[in-house]
Known about the structure:
This protein is of the alpha+beta class.
Amino acid sequence: MNKEIKLKFHNRGLRSYIEVDLCAECPRQDAKGCCGYYSPVFYASDFAYLLEKKPELIEHILQADRITVLDTSVTLNKSIDGDSYRCHFHSQEGGCSLAQEERESICRHFVCPGIDWEREPGLFHWKRFFTMLFDYEIELNNEIARVLSEEGLSLRNENDRAAFFSRLQDIFRDKTSKLPDFFKECPEKEEATLLREISFGQDWKL
Ligand code: SF4
Ligand code: SF4
């Protein structure tokens, strides 16, 4: 069965994301789709955004069950749910409870291989954009982690978290005062419609 799939690409700098209308009726038909297999990991650039826009979400993340706290990242580990898993932020009724810009980078960029939008020549500029954004985020997060480590600050030390986040925000502002040019290479928003053969259940690859 062929189906039209609508994608919306949003250039929001470090909070850029891709929306896919098919997710609302995911061919996996398990009301979880790819979110049933993923454990989101929040890094320094995510915390910098949340400190500015939704600090209470950082508190929520740090108080959640099944977290793995490293020096500058927190993973919310998925829980077993039936024959697969469930992400901490996912509910059967409402899907992901986070707004797109609050999500970490995989959750903002991932589109399943059945859709494979990257093979569309008309979308190569977005492929380049998200590839460069992914690399830039890694480099930025590593650089912030390096400075925090030199200053002896770590998320693992619960007593130091206020100082950790305060310095993280300063370092983030300093490192992102001039953003790379590729951010200007894509429009703020673009929509695309693709035609794809749909398979269902576990035949729809993640
Ligand atoms: S598997 Fe594909 S269609 Fe389903 S929720 Fe994930 S990205 Fe959306
Ligand atoms: S945070 Fe949201 S988008 Fe990411 S895996 Fe969990 S439910 Fe899915």
